[in-house]
Amino acid sequence: MSKIVRKLPRELDVPHPERLSCDDPNFDEIMLRHNISMALENPGYTDPETGYFVFNAKALADQGKCCANLCRHCPFKR
């Protein structure tokens, strides 16, 4: 049985524009942590401002659908 491949509206290294603006003062650090977590195949990273765990876009994409929790790196929402 073949796996269904879903076309996503953005690349996995591009955050949802309404959930992480490039004007955010932590943007560079957030994206660095996000990209490192994906490169290391970790499901996410610790947010530099809040200390909360944040799922990366790959972990969210692997779920196969949007969970409607307004995730910063949601790969499904335009």
What does this structure look like?
The chain is globular. A two-stranded antiparallel sheet has the order 1-2. The model has no long low-confidence stretch (mean pLDDT 88). The protein has helices at residues 27-39, 57-63; strands spanning 44-46, 53-55. The protein has one domain (14-78). 26% of the residues lie in helices and 8% in strands. By secondary structure, the protein is an alpha+beta fold. It is built from two helices and two strands.
What labels describe this entry?
78 residues; alpha+beta; two-stranded antiparallel sheet; 2 helices; 8% strand
The overall strand count is: 2
Rg from alpha-carbon coordinates: 12 Å
* Helical content class: 25-40%
Q: Helix segment count?
A: 2
Question: Strand-and-helix sequence, N→C?
Answer: HEEH
Average pLDDT reading: 88
For the termini, the CA-CA separation is 29 Å
Biggest sheet strand order reads 1-2
Provide the domain count: 1
Low-confidence regions: none
Note the main sheet. Answer: 2 strands, antiparallel
Beta-strand fraction estimate: 5-15%
Quick gist of this model?
The protein has 78 residues and is α+β, with helices and mostly antiparallel strands. The protein has two helices and two strands; from the N terminus they run H-E-E-H. The chain has one domain (14-78).
SSE topology:
Layout: H1 27-39, E1 44-46, E2 53-55, H2 57-63
Antiparallel strand pairs: 1-2
